[in-house]
Amino acid sequence: MKNKLLFFTYAVVNTTLFLPYFLYLLIGNHYPTFLNGWFPLIIFYVCNLTGTFLVRSFGKKVSTRELLLFFLLLASVGSFLGVLVFVNALWLDLSAILLGLSCSLLLPLYLTIQYHERRLFHRSFSGKDYGLAFLTMLLFMPLFIFLVKVNLPELAFGLYGIAFLVSFFLLRDLPHYDHGNMPSTSFDSRFFLLFLVLTGITFAVKSLRVLTDNHFSLILITLIVILLIGVFYLIQHSAFEFSLPRYVYWFGFLQGMITNFFILFGTFYLFSLQKGVYLYSFIYLAYGVGIISSLFVGGKVLRLFPKVEKVTLCGIALLIGAGLIFIPYCIPISGFLIGFFSNLNSSLLNKVAYTETTGLKDNSLLVKNRWGKLGSIFQQSLLFLLFISFCYFFKIPILSLLETITGKSIAPHLTDIVFVLRMTGGVILFGIAVCYLITLFFYEKGLKATQKPDE
């Protein structure tokens, strides 16, 4: 990885955490797509969360290098298909599928390559490279938003496709890293079934917010419950081997819950407070800026607290950030903190996953990434189930809730709905906080047990 332009690839891959959401969120309402313009965003969201399980079902027959190059090409194709949206809105849906699958895996794949480079060739980015990547990412966000706002979404997709294609050509000369013999794993029906079940859950939950029929909503709620039972059954009856330290799985799962909680609950909360106009800046922009900032000043922030364990510091900051979401004008601060420390925490856990895995290093970050996705899916399912349960308990029409949290209209039960939202968010956040603090306690206890006593 000696090419001086590799900072560009680093920037492009990191934008997959937030930039496609901007594109599909802003573009969907301008075209006659299914589910009132939400369908492309829902499809992207579903594929982004579940794509890693689909890839895992086909086994680990190819290396991370080949997977990275393949998904860069797939992301490029998906972006270029978005250019055809002016011909037919269906191209936008197909674009969302391909780009969602690609974005599900690109970042962990690329980071694995970076770890290979450091371990095998002692090559890493310089401060100048990170600085150029930072400037590139800062340029991408306002440029793409501007193009969509001036009704040029085709150009935005075209530029994104070119960016992925350039990244492919910059990385195609990567060396073939020696990891020993690759396992000759075959198709795993359990992971494929898990992919189908999780896709069903995610699509049902995301579609629920735009439905207009109470009976159909109840059918979907029943489906979600059945699918959740199916997930737990699959996990319980699968032979599972921990190839990473246990706390990596739990922190990854809980972090996935927190980030999903902020984006989903924050969106609904803003609409219920009649502040939906601030959705892009308070939620997505704040979260994206937090991610970008952590890439370049995260290490300096950690060094400000030398006596606090790094993972513990990130965990406490994430919980504080999540708590601030209940104060309306602190929501952008909440988004920045969650974006900043979730990305920083991921970097710390990725390093542990790569260095301490008992399995194949080439696969370690993908394993950790899957648990984060699982946490996101679990949180959003729990959020909607509690929403609906509290609505029945307080006798609030489900349709009124759905219309309020999606900004369609102001329901006559607005005060009660805001109360239900706050109570639901409080219950979920309390549960996450308890689980996170317990995990931190055992994590700190384990660290002390492994440290040698001072002589």
TrEMBL record:
Keyword vocabulary terms for this entry: Membrane, Transmembrane, Transmembrane helix
Spans traversing the lipid bilayer: 7-27, 33-55, 67-88, 94-111, 132-149, 155-171, 191-210, 216-235, 247-271, 277-299, 311-341, 377-398, 419-443
Top-level taxon: Bacteria
Record-given protein name: Uncharacterized protein
